[in-house]
């Protein structure tokens, strides 16, 4: 354990700024996300299943947030966003980028290393080049709005073409009317400004970053809605989805029975009796269309749940 901690400290504080690389290697990302045991992308990031990401869209922010807090993950939510299209939810696999106030010597090191690695164009386009279908580009640009616009509509089109998703920037964008015209693209940002990006530099790609009050790792799953954004560690995604879906089923059953006057609020809001549990199971049998998961998944989940 001591050696692993030392490795991560050296990794985060020394590797990128010494310009050994622009992005973490697959081995370093694996070392950073050891609790994920499933499939990984070629770059080492956890590759959570598309089916879970689709189901995640229907999870309420409060439910995902509450489940993570109960698991000890207290810093995975950020609110107070300007959202391009508030009527849609976005989920995906996280690609991170960190931006810093410009320091010429470090900026030169990063650009020289990027050139040696065959990267093309300005550094703010490099994170876009690594995107795959289902990825969401997450950037920490330290809340800079004026002269902090990471993308306009040209890069926005490139992002959507590669990922079929959008962006979450702790910073700003320009060409917002053009971005709104990209069908399917969405953005969670801290502001809009017509200025160009100036006096900023790329600090690294696919490294741990801070987004407001949240810590974000490459390969996290993200749930973005009009109320805010929740970043879910990949190894907890299935647990979050199943728990939240079960809570939604309980709520749907409870609300129906309250409207019918069968139970009192006190009965529904406290530990259920055996009679209510049996009624709930019968309700599930009578309403298979309400199940977002398979009945086999649900039965397996309920075996280990204390209700």
Automatic annotation (TrEMBL):
Coiled coil: none annotated. InterPro entries: RraA/RraA-like, RraA/RraA-like_sf. One of its GO terms (molecular function) is metal ion binding. The keyword Methyltransferase applies. It holds the Pfam family RraA-like. Mg(2+) binds at residue 175. Its cofactor is Mg(2+). Residues 1-19 form the signal peptide. This is Dimethylmenaquinone methyltransferase. It comes from Niastella populi.
């Amino acid at each position: 354990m001591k050696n692993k901690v030392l490795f991560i400290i050296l990794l985060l504080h020394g590797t990128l700024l010494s310009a050994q690389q622009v992005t973490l290697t697959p081995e370093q990302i694996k070392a950073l996300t050891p609790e994920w045991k499933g499939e990984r992308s070629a770059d080492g990031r956890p590759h959570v299943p598309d089916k879970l990401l689709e189901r995640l869209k229907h999870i309420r922010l409060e439910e995902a947030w509450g489940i993570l807090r109960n698991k000890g993950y207290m810093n995975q939510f950020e609110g107070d966003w300007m959202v391009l299209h508030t009527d849609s939810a976005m989920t995906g696999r996280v690609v991170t980028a960190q931006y810093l106030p410009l320091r010429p010597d470090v900026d030169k090191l990063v650009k020289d290393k990027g050139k040696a690695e065959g990267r093309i164009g300005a550094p703010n386009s490099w994170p876009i080049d690594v995107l795959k279908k289902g990825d969401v580009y997450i950037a920490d640009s330290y809340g800079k709005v004026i002269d902090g616009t990471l993308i306009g509509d040209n890069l926005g089109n490139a992002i959507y073409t590669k990922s079929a998703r959008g962006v979450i920037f702790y910073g700003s964008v320009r060409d917002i009317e053009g971005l709104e015209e990209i069908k399917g693209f969405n953005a969670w940002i801290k502001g809009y400004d017509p200025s160009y990006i100036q006096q900023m530099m790329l600090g690294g790609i696919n490294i741990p970053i801070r987004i407001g009050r949240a810590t974000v790792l490459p390969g996290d799953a993200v749930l973005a809605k009009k109320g805010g954004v929740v970043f879910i560690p990949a190894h907890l995604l299935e647990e979050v989805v199943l728990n939240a879906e079960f809570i939604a089923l309980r709520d749907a059953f409870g609300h129906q029975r309250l409207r019918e006057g069968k139970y009192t609020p006190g009965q529904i809001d406290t530990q259920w009796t055996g009679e209510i549990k049996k009624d709930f199971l019968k309700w599930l049998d009578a309403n298979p269309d309400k199940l977002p998961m398979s009945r086999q998944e649900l039965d397996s989940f309920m075996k280990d749940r204390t209700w």
